[in-house]
Amino acid sequence: MQELAFGLAFSVGACAGGAWWCLRRLAEARHLLDTPTSKIRSAAQGYVEFYGVLEPVPETLIYGPLTGKPCLWWRFRIEEYSSNGKGRSWRPVESGSSEAWLRLADATGDCLINPQGAQVRPATREVWKGNLRHPRGLAQGGIRGWLSSGKDYRYTEERLHVGESLYAIGDFRTSGGGRQGLDLSAAQSSVIRQWKGDFAGLLQRFDNDRDGQLDEREWNRVRLAAQLEAEDRHRQVSVQPAQNHLAQPRESQPFILSSYGEDDMARQFRWQAAAGAVLCLLGALGTAWLLEGTVL
């Protein structure tokens, strides 16, 4: 009975997981294909799609952590070769990715990209083996790196470089340049919350009768001063040059940075959706077979 319960849990989980994966990947592919490509200078605020070229971010030097090669973004994984009575496998022991911002440019302008939360698909991917937990120097390339025997660790490093083409889809926002509207009520509330963080300073500025609290008249003065402060801050931001940013959407829309184009990414998502559908079908068949066995 315990084995039957375990089998049912596994098959039902495979069916549900496969269905979820299939629908998720199909939705992501549809987002990519339905979102029109925009130019950076004329892009609307919100969810957008860009094609451009990666350019260096001033005063930022980045090197791949395993190879030491210069790049704009990296991701690495270190695996250790392990064996037990049941078999042999590569076990992940360390991984990480860059958090440095990227700069994407097209013929109309440029945009800074915060890669946190993005699905990054770089074209450059190096895999090699070695005897040390952390490799020293550059990767050993070619067939020699793979045919070397007695290697205990496998290293993988992916990178984005200056001058590479990049497909990007995510949440686009522009600050400065007079394009940012003012929600006066929200801005005023933000200023008041900030001032409340230093309540002693707030009392010093607005507690005229020095009774240690703010009455209604004094609070009205606080609100008026906060409104004037919010308007002044907005004017200062508006006169600054426009600065474009792309980041992870707040909703469940895909955030993708890829060296491959929209069609390639959509094709990959469809293949992954098909794999999810197959897993769902196998899980459903397994569940039906187990339930039929219990009835008989």
TrEMBL record:
Q: Which GO terms describe its biological process?
A: protein ubiquitination
Subcellular location, principal: membrane
Entry GO terms, CC: membrane
**Which chemical reaction does it catalyze?**
S-ubiquitinyl-[E2 ubiquitin-conjugating enzyme]-L-cysteine + [acceptor protein]-L-lysine = [E2 ubiquitin-conjugating enzyme]-L-cysteine + N(6)-ubiquitinyl-[acceptor protein]-L-lysine
Report how it sits in the membrane: Multi-pass membrane protein
Q: Which parts of the sequence belong to the E3 Ubiquitin ligase MUL1-like domain?
A: 82-178
Keyword match Ion transport: no
Question: Is the Ribonucleoprotein keyword given for this protein?
Answer: no
Pfam families xrefs: GIDE
Q: What keywords are assigned to this protein?
A: Membrane, Metal-binding, Transferase, Transmembrane, Transmembrane helix, Ubl conjugation pathway, Zinc, Zinc-finger
Single GO MF annotation: zinc ion binding
Quote the InterPro entries the UniProt record gives. EF_Hand_1_Ca_BS (IPR018247), MUL1-like (IPR022170)
Transmembrane annotation, as ranges: 6-23, 273-291
Query: What is the enzyme's class at the highest EC level?
Result: transferase
Q: Where in the cell is it found?
A: Membrane
EC number(s): the record gives 2.3.2.27
This protein is called RING-type E3 ubiquitin transferase
> Which taxonomic lineage is given here?
Bacteria, Pseudomonadati, Pseudomonadota, Gammaproteobacteria, Pseudomonadales
